[in-house]
C-alpha cells in the first residue's frame, strides 16, 4: 500500500464509488429503469448455474424429533 | 400491528412471505421467511442473487426454533428455592407490575446502581436502545453484554486509536489477514463468502491460528502460532514494516502521532524473539508482514480471538496500528469507516446518556479500574466524536460505554465495591457467557430480583424470579442497523404471530417504564412508531421504506479524515494513545505472556470457540442442529492423545487450576501439539430436571476460566481465553447424559 500514489488513490476511489452507487439500485424492489439495468449488470457477474450443493446442505430432514426435556419437575 | 401484505394461496390457508434479518447468529443475513396462518413454515435464501449465498443451515432451522414445543409462551414466576426450577404461570401484566415493584424496592434500598443488566443485542434486536434509556432515566450505569468480550470491545478499543471502528473493503482487497478467525460455509457465512470472492479475484491470505483451520488450509501463508501470542507476532510485523520502510510514509507523517515511540517499542521485538514467543519460523513471520504491507489494499477483518486475551487491548490496537501505518485506513481495498447512516437515528440518541448524572456514570463498574470500554473513555472521546461524526455518545457494536462484567458479577456476589441486588438478563444466558461461572452462580444466588427474558428456558433463566417469554425475528417488524459497524439498514418484516403473552424487548422496557412511573419518556406505542421516529431524518416511514427496498446501502466515501480529521484528542491516528496514557496505562502496545504451563498443567487450552450448528450457548435443543454435533469435543493432537491415553470419541476430563469439564475427544492432526481446543457454551437442555441446571457445569468452558486481576487485560479487564494451562485425562461419561449425547440413540 505504501506505493499507492495520490492519482492511484483517486482512480480507485472513483471506480469504487461508481460501483457503490449501483448497489442501492441492485437492492431496490424495482426491476425497471436504472434499477433493472443495475440488476442485470450485477447478475452478469454471477455464475450461470446456481450452486445446488448449497441448497442441499441447507435442507433438514423432516423426521428428526425435537429435543425436549425428559423429565420436568 | 402492521403486517406484511399477504400473498394468499389457494384455499383458506393464509400464506405470507417477508424479508427477515436472521438473528440465530450475530451476522444478520437477510433471508425470506414464509408462514402459513401465522406459523413459520420455511426460511430460505434471498431472492436477490447477489445475496442468495448468505445463508447457513442454522438459518433454515428457524422454523424448528420458532415453533419448538418447549418455546416459552407464558410469563413464569418462581416457586420454591431459587434455581429449583419450579414455576407458576402468570399473566404478562402481573409480571410487569410485580417486577416494577420489586425493582423499585431494590433502587430505594441500595441506589439505582444496584440494578445490573446483561443482554445480547443479537438475540433481542428490537430494543432500539430502550434498555439503556430505562437505566439512564433510573440512574444505573451497570449495563453489560457479551460484546464486552466479543466485537464490542474491539469497537471501543479501535476508537481509542482512530476514533471509529473499521470493516474491510472486501470487494477491493488484495490481501487479508485472519487472526484465528475462521468463517466457514455455515458459520459467519457472509464473511466466508466475501473472503472466498476475494480469493477468487486473486487476493492473498494470511491465517494466524494454532490450528490448521478451514481458512488456514486455503491460506497463502499459515502462521501456526502458540495460542495467545498474537500481540507479539503483530509487534514483529510492525518491526519488519518499519525496518524495511514498507509503511506509508506520507500517511504516517500527516496523519499519525507517536511513530517514533512505536518504532522504539517495536525494537523490543526483534524477529528472533518473536519467533521464540510465537513458536513460528522468523522468516515466515517476515514474509507474512511483507505480504500484508506490500499489497495494494489489505485488510485485517475483525477477529474474536484477540478480544479474549490478557493483552487484548494491545492486540486490537496493533491491528489498528498496522492498518494505519500501511495506509489502509479508510482506503480502497483496506478498511472502511462506514460512518452513520444519515437517514436513521442512532440507538445512542435514544439511549439518553445525558440523563444519567456524571456522578452515577462514574459508579459504573470498571470505570476506575479497567476503563477502556466504560463511560470513562467515552466521556473523553465525546467532543471528538461530536466534531467528526456529529454525535457525542455513539455506541458502536453496543460496546462503547459498558460496565465490566467481571466487576458486575463480583458486586452481585460480594457487594464489592457496592451491592448489586437486581439483575436482568435478556437473550443472554449470562451464567455461561462470561468467565468464572462459579462466581456468576454465587452472584445470582445473592440477588433480590432476577428477571430473564428468553425464548427458551436456560440455566440462567432457571435461577430467575421471573421468566418473560421473548419474541423471534419472524414475529416483529424491524430495521436493523448493525450498530454503526456499517451504515447499512436491513428490513425485517413480521410474518408470524407471536405468542400472546410474549413480548419484544421494546414492549418489555416500555411497559416497565410505564409501571415505574416514567412512561412519558417512552412515547412510542409500537415498534413501528419507534422505527418511524428513527427514520425521520430520511423523510420516510417504515411502510415507505418497506415498499421501496429491503436494504439501504450508502455509497462508499473514502479518506474522509482529510476533511474531518480523526475523532481522537490529537485529531490523528494515535499510534501512541494519549487516552491510555492519561488513564495511567502504557500508551504503546506490548505483549504480555499468558500464564505459563507447568508439569501439573502442561497444555495450552483455548476456549470460546464456536461450532457450526450453534451460536453461543443456544440451539442445543434443536433436533436438526444438535444431531449434527450431538456432543462437545476437545480437539487434541494425536501425539498428545497417545501420551495421555485418550481415545477418539471417548470422554475426557479437562482440568485447570480453577475448574474442570468433561467432553468427548476428537483427535485431530490439524491442532498444534500441546494445545487443546474447547468449544463454547455447552449444556444439555434435555437433562433439565435430572441434572443440576441442565448440565450447565458439566461441559461449559466458562467453568475453566477465572477473572482474577492477574489474568485480566489491564485496560479492559478482559479475561484470558486463548492459551491457559490445563491437563487432560480419560474419564467416564458424566452422569445423566442422554442417548443423543452418548451416541446411543
Ligand atoms: S450465518 Fe446463518 S445463523 Fe447467522 S445470520 Fe446467516 S443464516 Fe442466520
Question: Layout of helices and strands, plus pairs?
Answer:
The complex is a heterodimer of chains A (about 70) and B (about 750).
Chain A: H1 6-26, H2 33-44, H3 52-58
Helix pairs in contact in A: 1-2
Chain B: E1 15-21, E2 30-36, E3 39-44, H1 62-66, E4 76-79, E5 86-89, H2 92-110, E6 115-119, H3 121-124, H4 130-138, E7 143-145, H5 152-162, E8 167-168, E9 175-179, H6 189-200, E10 204-208, H7 214-217, E11 221-223, H8 230-243, H9 249-255, E12 256-257, H10 259-267, H11 271-278, H12 282-294, E13 298-299, H13 312-325, E14 335-336, H14 347-351, H15 358-361, H16 375-389, H17 405-414, E15 422-426, H18 430-433, H19 437-445, E16 449-454, E17 466-469, E18 478-480, E19 489-492, H20 505-515, H21 527-535, H22 542-548, E20 551-552, H23 561-564, E21 573-574, H24 578-582, E22 603-609, H25 623-626, E23 633-636, H26 638-644, E24 651-655, E25 660-667, E26 675-679, E27 722-730, H27 739-742
Parallel strand pairs in B: 6-7, 6-15, 9-10, 9-13, 10-11, 12-21, 15-16, 16-17, 22-26, 23-25
Antiparallel strand pairs in B: 1-2, 2-3, 4-5, 4-17, 8-14, 18-19, 19-20, 22-27, 23-26, 24-25, 24-27
Helix pairs in contact in B: 2-20, 5-13, 8-10, 8-11, 8-12, 8-13, 11-12, 17-19
What does this entry look like structurally?
The complex is a heterodimer of chains A (73) and B (745). In chain A, α1 packs across α2. Chain A is built from three helices and no strands. Chain A has helices at 6-26, 33-44, 52-58. With 73 residues, chain A is mostly helical. Chain A has a domain at 17-44. The termini of chain A are far apart. Chain B is α/β, with parallel strands linked by helices. Chain B has three domains: 76-150 and 342-481 and 500-546, Rossmann fold; 167-336 and 558-582, Dimethylsulfoxide Reductase, domain 2; 603-730, Barwin-like endoglucanases. Chain B has 27 helices and 27 strands. In chain B, the strands form seven sheets. In chain B, strands 5-4-17-16-15-6-7 form a seven-stranded mixed beta sheet, sandwiched between helices. A six-stranded mixed barrel of chain B has the order 22-26-23-25-24-27. In chain B, β10 (204-208), α7 and β11 (221-223) form a beta-alpha-beta unit. The relative contact order of chain B is 0.16. The structure holds iron/sulfur cluster.
Amino acid at each position: 500500500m505504501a506505493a499507492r500514489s495520490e492519482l492511484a488513490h483517486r482512480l480507485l476511489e472513483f471506480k469504487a464509488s461508481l460501483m457503490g452507487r449501483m448497489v442501492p439500485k441492485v437492492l431496490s424492489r424495482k426491476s425497471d429503469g436504472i434499477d433493472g439495468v443495475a440488476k442485470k449488470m450485477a447478475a452478469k457477474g454471477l455464475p450461470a448455474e446456481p450452486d445446488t450443493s448449497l441448497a442441499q446442505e441447507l435442507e433438514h430432514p423432516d423426521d428428526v424429533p425435537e429435543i425436549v426435556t425428559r423429565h420436568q419437575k | 400491528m402492521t403486517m406484511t401484505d399477504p400473498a394468499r394461496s389457494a384455499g383458506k390457508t393464509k400464506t405470507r412471505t417477508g424479508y427477515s434479518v436472521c438473528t440465530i447468529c450475530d451476522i444478520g443475513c437477510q433471508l425470506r421467511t414464509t408462514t402459513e396462518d401465522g406459523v413459520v413454515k420455511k426460511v430460505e435464501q434471498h431472492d436477490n442473487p447477489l445475496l442468495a449465498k448468505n445463508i447457513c443451515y442454522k438459518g433454515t432451522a428457524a422454523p424448528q426454533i420458532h415453533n419448538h414445543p418447549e418455546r416459552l409462551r407464558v410469563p413464569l414466576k418462581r416457586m420454591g428455592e431459587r434455581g429449583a426450577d419450579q414455576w407458576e404461570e402468570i399473566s404478562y401484566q402481573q409480571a410487569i407490575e410485580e417486577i416494577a415493584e420489586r425493582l423499585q424496592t431494590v433502587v430505594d434500598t441500595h441506589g439505582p446502581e444496584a440494578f445490573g443488566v446483561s443482554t445480547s443485542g443479537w438475540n433481542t434486536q428490537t430494543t432500539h436502545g430502550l434498555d439503556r434509556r430505562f437505566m439512564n432515566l433510573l440512574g444505573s450505569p451497570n449495563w453489560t453484554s457479551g460484546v464486552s468480550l466479543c466485537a464490542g470491545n474491539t469497537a471501543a478499543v479501535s476508537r481509542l486509536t482512530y476514533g471509529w471502528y473499521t470493516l474491510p473493503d472486501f470487494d477491493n482487497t488484495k490481501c487479508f489477514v485472519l487472526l484465528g478467525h475462521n468463517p466457514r460455509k455455515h458459520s459467519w457465512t457472509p464473511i466466508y463468502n466475501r473472503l472466498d470472492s476475494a480469493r477468487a479475484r486473486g487476493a492473498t491470505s494470511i491465517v494466524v491460528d494454532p490450528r490448521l483451520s478451514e481458512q488456514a488450509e486455503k491460506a497463502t501463508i499459515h502462521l501456526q502460532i502458540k495460542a495467545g501470542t498474537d500481540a507479539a507476532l503483530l509487534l514483529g510485523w510492525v518491526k519488519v514494516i518499519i525496518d524495511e520502510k514498507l509503511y506509508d510514509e506520507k500517511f504516517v507523517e500527516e496523519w499519525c502521532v507517536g511513530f517514533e515511540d512505536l518504532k522504539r517499542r517495536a525494537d523490543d521485538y526483534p524477529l528472533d524473539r518473536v519467533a521464540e514467543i510465537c513458536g513460528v519460523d522468523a522468516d515466515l513471520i517476515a514474509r507474512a508482514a511483507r505480504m500484508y504491507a506490500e499489497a495494494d489494499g489489505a485488510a485485517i477483518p475483525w477477529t474474536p480471538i484477540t478480544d479474549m486475551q490478557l493483552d487484548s487491548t494491545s492486540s486490537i490496537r496493533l491491528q489498528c496500528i498496522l492498518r494505519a501505518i500501511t495506509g489502509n485506513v479508510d482506503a480502497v481495498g483496506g478498511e472502511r469507516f462506514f460512518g452513520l447512516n444519515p437517514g436513521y437515528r442512532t440507538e445512542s440518541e435514544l439511549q439518553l446518556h445525558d440523563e444519567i448524572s456524571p456522578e452515577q456514570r462514574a459508579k459504573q463498574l470498571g470505570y476506575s479500574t479497567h476503563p477502556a470500554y466504560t463511560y470513562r473513555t467515552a466521556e473523553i472521546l465525546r467532543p471528538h466524536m461530536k466534531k467528526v461524526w456529529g454525535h457525542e455518545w455513539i455506541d458502536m457494536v453496543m460496546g462503547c460505554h459498558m460496565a465490566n462484567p467481571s466487576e458486575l458479577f463480583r458486586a452481585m456476589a460480594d457487594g464489592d465495591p457496592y451491592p448489586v441486588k437486581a439483575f436482568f438478563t435478556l437473550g443472554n444466558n449470562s451464567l455461561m457467557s462470561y468467565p468464572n461461572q462459579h462466581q456468576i452462580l454465587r452472584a445470582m444466588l445473592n440477588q433480590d430480583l432476577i428477571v430473564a427474558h428468553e425464548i427458551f428456558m436456560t440455566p440462567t433463566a432457571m435461577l430467575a424470579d421471573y421468566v418473560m417469554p421473548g419474541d423471534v425475528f419472524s414475529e416483529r417488524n424491524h430495521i436493523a442497523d448493525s450498530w454503526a459497524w456499517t451504515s447499512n439498514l436491513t428490513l425485517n418484516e413480521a410474518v408470524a404471530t407471536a405468542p400472546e403473552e410474549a413480548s419484544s424487548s421494546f414492549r418489555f422496557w416500555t411497559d416497565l417504564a410505564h409501571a415505574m412511573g416514567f412512561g412519558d419518556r417512552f412515547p412510542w406505542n409500537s415498534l413501528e412508531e419507534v422505527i418511524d421516529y428513527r427514520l425521520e431524518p430520511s423523510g420516510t416511514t417504515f411502510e415507505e421504506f418497506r415498499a421501496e427496498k429491503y436494504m439501504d446501502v450508502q455509497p462508499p466515501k473514502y479518506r474522509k479524515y482529510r476533511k474531518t480529521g480523526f475523532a481522537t484528542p490529537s485529531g490523528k491516528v494515535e499510534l501512541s494513545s494519549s487516552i491510555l496514557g492519561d488513564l495511567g496505562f502504557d500508551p504503546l502496545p506490548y505483549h504480555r505472556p499468558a500464564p505459563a504451563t507447568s508439569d501439573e498443567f502442561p497444555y495450552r487450552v483455548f476456549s470460546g470457540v464456536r461450532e457450526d450448528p450453534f451460536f453461543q450457548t443456544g440451539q442445543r435443543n434443536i433436533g436438526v442442529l444438535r444431531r449434527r454435533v450431538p456432543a462437545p469435543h476437545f480437539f487434541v493432537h494425536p501425539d498428545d492423545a497417545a501420551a495421555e491415553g485418550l481415545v477418539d470419541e471417548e470422554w475426557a476430563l479437562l482440568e485447570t487450576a480453577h475448574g474442570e469439564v468433561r467432553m468427548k475427544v476428537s483427535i485431530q492432526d490439524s491442532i498444534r501439539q500441546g494445545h487443546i481446543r474447547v468449544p463454547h457454551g455447552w449444556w444439555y437442555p434435555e437433562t433439565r430436571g435430572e441434572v443440576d441446571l441442565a448440565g450447565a457445569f458439566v461441559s461449559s468452558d466458562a467453568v475453566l476460566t477465572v477473572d482474577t486481576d492477574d489474568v485480566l487485560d489491564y485496560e479492559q479487564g478482559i479475561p484470558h481465553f486463548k492459551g491457559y494451562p490445563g491437563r487432560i485425562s480419560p474419564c467416564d461419561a458424566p452422569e445423566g447424559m442422554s442417548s443423543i449425547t452418548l451416541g446411543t440413540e
